[in-house]
Structure to design on (268 residues):
């Protein structure tokens, strides 16, 4: 069984053939995925897709959506987390975080939304799924102030020191499409050398396509069905059998997002 810990199944890129995309994923052995929310307007859709297809979901306000987010959206998030206390498919607060790579997005507003959502994660005893882009130190600063129960630093591309500090905070580091690029030397080095319990696999579909979907300069759509091939790259980097990568990914995903375990092995 493969688990895709980060897939934007609600994205418009899948509206024309979502069932076919998921059929290809299932044929490849991807039987579980986590669908993160990015804005309050999409919370209900994310939850509905998870229930329809038997997956997990998270709710949060993405840093790049903060310019159009209202302060009241945090109240809406809190209400959805309260309503979902007993929903086994609601596994995290996310996708939240900071993005310092995109010009023109107010850092102060990003940081305010991030801090408020860390407080909600703490209140509801949920892990977090963090967006990390040139912002690892900023994320860690707020984690020092608002301790959470763990989670995933999605698409991690920071330094080894930042990676180890994330892991020390109880976070797993997400690896996917960028790990397949020959030029991603730092990402590949970390993917090969981190402790066995420090990482999880993800596609971020439809974004961050793997090397084989970047042909002649074109950026083709990423799919959750690409996860096993990405896992093959991880197996090569870590010099492990593919079955062991699958086992570690499952174990680490359940450690990062504890409510996943009951979805994978339902009682009875």
């Amino acid at each position: 069984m493969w688990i895709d810990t980060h897939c934007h199944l609600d994205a418009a890129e899948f509206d024309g053939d979502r069932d076919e995309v998921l059929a290809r994923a299932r044929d490849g052995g991807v039987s579980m995925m986590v669908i993160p929310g990015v804005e309050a307007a999409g919370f209900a859709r994310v939850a509905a897709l998870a229930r329809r297809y038997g997956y997990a979901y998270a709710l949060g306000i993405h840093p790049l959506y903060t310019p159009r987010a209202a302060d009241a959206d945090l109240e809406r998030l809190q209400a959805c987390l309260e309503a979902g206390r007993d929903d086994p498919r609601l596994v995290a607060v996310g996708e939240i975080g900071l993005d310092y790579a995109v010009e023109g997005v107010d850092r102060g507003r990003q940081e305010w939304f991030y801090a408020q959502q860390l407080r909600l994660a703490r209140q509801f005893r949920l892990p977090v799924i963090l967006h990390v882009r040139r912002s690892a130190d900023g994320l860690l600063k707020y984690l020092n102030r608002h301790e959470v129960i763990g989670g995933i630093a999605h698409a991690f591309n920071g330094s080894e020191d930042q990676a180890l500090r994330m892991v020390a905070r109880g976070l797993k580091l997400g690896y996917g499409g960028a790990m397949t690029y020959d030029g991603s030397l730092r990402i590949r080095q970390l993917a090969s050398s981190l402790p066995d319990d420090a990482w999880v696999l993800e596609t971020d579909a439809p974004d961050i396509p793997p090397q084989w979907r970047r042909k002649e300069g074109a950026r083709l759509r990423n799919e959750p069905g690409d996860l096993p091939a990405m896992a093959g790259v991880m197996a090569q980097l870590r010099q492990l059998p593919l079955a062991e990568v699958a086992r570690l990914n499952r174990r680490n995903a359940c450690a990062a997002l504890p409510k996943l375990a009951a979805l994978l092995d339902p009682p009875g």
Q: What stands out?
A: The CA atoms of residues 149 and 230 lie 28 Å apart. The beta strands are 2-4, 30-36, 56-59, 90-99, 128-133, 151-154, 171-175, 199-201.
